[in-house]
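2024-03-11 09:14:02 DEBUG pipeline.ingest accepted 1 chain
2024-03-11 09:14:02 DEBUG pipeline.ingest length=206
2024-03-11 09:14:03 DEBUG pipeline.predict start
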Amino acid sequence: MAEQPLYTDAEWTFEKIERITQAIGQIADEELRLDYYPFRIELITSEQMMDAYTSAGIPINYAHWSFGKQFVLLQDQYKRGKMGLAYEIVINSDPCLVYLMEENTMTMQTLVIAHAAYGHNTFMKNNHLFKQWTHADAILDYFAFARHYIGQCEERYGMEAVSEVLDACHALQTHGVHRTRPLRKLSLVEEEQRQRERAEQRERDL
């Protein structure tokens, strides 16, 4: 007897999402043997997705005027049809947080659960640099601590002084420090050897 399909129409329900998540999880565990964090799925509106965009998806964040400015710009572009939104946002935490758009079809929810809840999640748990520099089980507590600390600074030093510091931090946020050593430059002899190896590999592939 043929197995029944997990769903047959485009509309999603929480029951369908639960069935799909279990089915994908069975493949992830038994066939692919993925190693991932436990995760929590949350359904959000397009407006909530835009709000998450403005703060890089951080669920617990401090207040800053630039977030509101970015939200208004995104909202205007989205309503005018000049941009689309991500189908999901994933937070590198333990448990992993997965935000799905309410506007997604059931097929898109299925794709996103496989891609984000299991794929991104597995990558984040096993990424070498993330293991070195991110404590997934403490990241949400750190976000809460940072927001509380900034609030304390505002009470102690005033909102204007704190805002100036945050403005400077936001201006520098895309100028990060490289924490990994750059690759050693190859000598001419080594580069020629690599080219020969590439040519030999292409011949074997063909």
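2024-03-11 09:14:41 DEBUG pipeline.report The two ends are 44 Å apart (CA to CA).
2024-03-11 09:14:41 DEBUG pipeline.predict end
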